[in-house]
Structure to design on (137 residues):
């Protein structure tokens, strides 16, 4: 089993106990059973902040407090985001998503051999083209 990287929406849905697809639930359960880390990209923190600032997302607390609380879950970890991953996001193979945050999440998954959990059709299509692994949630 490969380790998971939640995209921003998956992170919100997992934190809010939203309904997820069966394969996604199984992957999360397997990660928990095997005590494997589930990763979040630091760029997701930026996206959460933007969503709240633009009134597109309401959280029970300030975004920083919400993220801090989420990261206290035993198996959730922030992925590293060194400059090389940011540079790699500009040079992804094929036809990658145009969204910079999606590109950074993809580059992070490729760098650390992670499987992206997402509902983003563009990322799922990119995965189907063989450029990254992804699981629909």
């Amino acid at each position: 089993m490969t380790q998971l990287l939640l995209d921003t929406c998956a992170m919100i849905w997992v934190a809010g106990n939203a309904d997820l697809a069966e394969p996604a639930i199984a992957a999360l359960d397997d990660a928990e059973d095997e005590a494997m880390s589930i990763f979040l990209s630091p760029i997701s923190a930026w996206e959460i902040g933007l969503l709240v600032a633009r009134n597109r997302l309401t959280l029970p607390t300030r975004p920083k407090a919400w993220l801090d609380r989420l990261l206290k879950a035993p198996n959730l970890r922030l992925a590293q985001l060194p400059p090389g991953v940011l540079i790699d996001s500009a040079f992804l193979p094929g036809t990658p998503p145009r969204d910079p945050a999606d590109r950074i999440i993809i580059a992070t998954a490729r760098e650390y051999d992670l499987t992206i959990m997402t509902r983003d059709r563009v990322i799922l299509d990119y995965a189907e083209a063989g450029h990254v692994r992804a699981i629909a949630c």
Notes: The helical segments are 8-15, 22-33, 42-53, 63-70, 83-88, 100-112, 121-128.
